[in-house]
Every structure is written in structure tokens, then in C-alpha cells.
Amino acid sequence: MDIAAYVGVDWASTTHYAFVMDADGRKLGHRAFAHSGDGLADLARWITSTADAEPTRIAIGIEVPHGPVVESLMDAGFMVHALNPKQLDRFRDRFTMAGAKDDRRDALVLADALRTDRRFYRLLEPMHPSIIELREWSRMAEDLSAERNRLANRFRHQLWRYYPQLLDVSEDWAAPWMLDLWELIPTPATAQVVRTTTVTKLIKRCQVKRWSAETLLEQLRGTPLAVAPGVTEACILHCRVVIQRLRLITVQLKTAMKELSRLSEAVSDLVVDAVRSPARRAEVLKSIPGVGPVVLAALLSEAHDAVTRCDATALRRLSGVVPVTRRSGKQYLVVMRQACPHRLRTAVFHWARVAVMHDFHSRNRYAVLRKRGHSHARALRSIASRLIGVACAMLQTGELFDPNRAPQPAAA
């Protein structure tokens, strides 16, 4: 399609700056707009009138691939392209050697670079609502899990202060039955007088297999710590506040996991190809060792385009498992890739870690890499790279993972 005008939009929290030029690089206008409903509507109208062309013939360059500015411009019909901020910094050197930076110059750089080097930009397409919802639930589940761990550590610290006998009862101090046990026996003094039948009812209700009432009471009735007056009361007050928050987060986390499963199935239905992939993509990915609800949601939301295209190269780069080579003269250096989405990197790391635990071929490959001197993380990145290649090949054919199938030799 013939592009009539190129626009650079430098976004900010309060004010956005736009610069419009024609196909020959001549300036048509520049202006700032407030971040509001009226401001973004004025931005779309001003671009159309300044360029004097239909929105479908106007290309817009911007640093971020998401957000209200991008969504409003896409709704108006413009061709919106995203550019990595690091690339924008390199393009800025064309216009200033002193490193000067302002909003107008950045908008100019975005527009001119889009005009001359559009191949470095990524054309954005409207995202399905289910994918947006899945991405949000995936990020909320990660935040809730981190908050649960923080509160569990706070609960453990309070027990360490006055009630260390309870620490050896379970490795998960935020488990619901542990919270019930603390509410039943909050102090070493209570453990001395509680009835065995009462503890038996708790163990039976919570379906605890590791402990019996007698062995549990024997553990809790150990020699208590000698603490200063008021310490026990203060710790109990702190534990009650933490437990209330833990119970709420536990409920929210269960809801998040249910939503992740539901939305993963919905997103998988969007990219089913009856010719290339007769099976649903969620079923194919879930059959691979190490892929659970959290990893599956991260793959389908954070790397949806790469998974849809079955592009192993792009998925490896996005997840950070392929290194970066720096060669200059006699210097040759290979370093870990840092420029990648953090959530996707974390999800793929745990994918490889769990696969090493449950998949025979991944475990053998990991052992070979460790013998070569690779670190734990470096070996897991190699395992993840192999699993991504296997996953993309399975997505193309629609086959489910076969643990008994011998792996193909790696290409030279």
C-alpha cells in the first residue's frame, strides 16, 4: 500500500508529542496533546487533517506496542508500528551527536526512521480480548504468588521468634492446614493442654498424611523458647494479620488458576489450524513435560504471535534462551541475552527446570551439559532451547508429546 504520510508519536504520562512528515521527508506539522479522551481524539483528527489522507494510508511509529495511545490510534484506522527503545536511541544519533533529547526530536526520529527503515518496525495488529484477559490474569497470578511467598516468610519469621516447634511441621508455612493448626494451637502453652481428639479432627478434616495427632503433639510440646514478656502477644497479633491476608490471597490465587485454564483453552481455540494442526495448541503444549497452567498461559499470552506462527527462532529470542555474540577483531564474546520479556523468561526457565525433573531425555542432556562445565542456569537455557524447537515442531504437525520417542541428533 502507498503510504502518504509518516507520523512519530513520543508518548508520555501526561503529554504526547506528534510529528508528521510526507513520503519525501518534508515536515507537515508537529504538536503536543494531553493524555485524555479528548486529547487522544484530537490527536487522531489532527493527524488525518495534517496528512490530508485516509487513516489507512498513514503510518505511525511509536515506542510501545500497547497502551491507550496505541489502542486509540489503531481504532482510528492508522497503521501503527512499534520500535524498540534501544533502536530509537540508535536512530537518534542521526540527528544529534551531542546526545540532546526532547519530545519533539524523538517524534521526528520516529517518523523519519519509519520512513527510511520501516523493516525495523513491527506492524501492530488488534489483539483478541481473550488474549488481553489471559495476559492480565497471568500477570496477576504471578503477583499473587509472589505476595503469598512474602507473607509466608513473614509468618515463618514470627514463628521463629517465639514458636520454632511449628516450623518443622511443614515446608509450606502458608498451607491452609498450617494456618488452621496455628489458630488451634497458637502458643507452646496451648500445645500443652490441647486434647488429642481435637488435633485428630483437624488432621482428618485437612487430610494430612504426614502426621498423626500423637506425633504432631509430641513435636509441638518440645521445650519452648524463653522470650521476654510481651513478645508472644506481639507475635500472635502479627500472625493474625498475616493469616487474614494469606487466606484472602489463597482464594484469589485459586480463582486466578481457574481463569488461566479457562482462558488458555479459549485462546487455543483462536489459533487452531485444521490443516497444519488438527489438535488444539493448548493440548499439544500441555503434553510437553514441564508445561503447566502458568507456563502455558505465559506462552499463549506473552508470546502469542510466535506460538501462532510456530516460529522457534522468535520464541527462543523472546524467552532469552539464545545467547548474544559480540565479535570485534580478535575479541569473541558470548553473553546471556538480557533484552527479553521478564515474565516469559521466568516461565521458560521453570519449564526447563521441571522438564529436567520428569523427562528422561532432558535429564540426560542436562547431565551432559553440566559435565562440560556449564552452570545450572546455562544448562537449563540449552534444555529450554531444545524444548522450544520440539514444541514448535509438534504445533506444526499437531502431534502430542511422546516420552518414548528417541530424540533426533542436533544439527552441526
3D architecture notes:
This protein is of the alpha/beta class. The protein has three domains: 5-123, ATPase, nucleotide binding domain (Nucleotidyltransferase, domain 5), CATH 3.30.420.40; 132-254, Helix Hairpins, CATH 1.10.287; 274-397, no CATH class. It has helices at 37-51, 68-75, 85-92, 103-116, 129-162, 176-184, 188-193, 196-206, 213-220, 231-270, 281-286, 293-302, 304-309, 312-319, 342-358, 360-371, 376-397; strands at 5-10, 15-22, 27-34, 58-62, 79-82, 122-123, 324-328, 331-335. The strands form two sheets. A six-stranded mixed beta sheet has the order 3-2-1-4-5-6. A two-stranded antiparallel ribbon has the order 7-8. Strand 7 (324-328) and strand 8 (331-335) form a beta hairpin. Helix 12 runs antiparallel to helix 15 (342-358). It is elongated and about 85 Å long. It starts with a strand and ends in a 15-residue tail after the last helix.
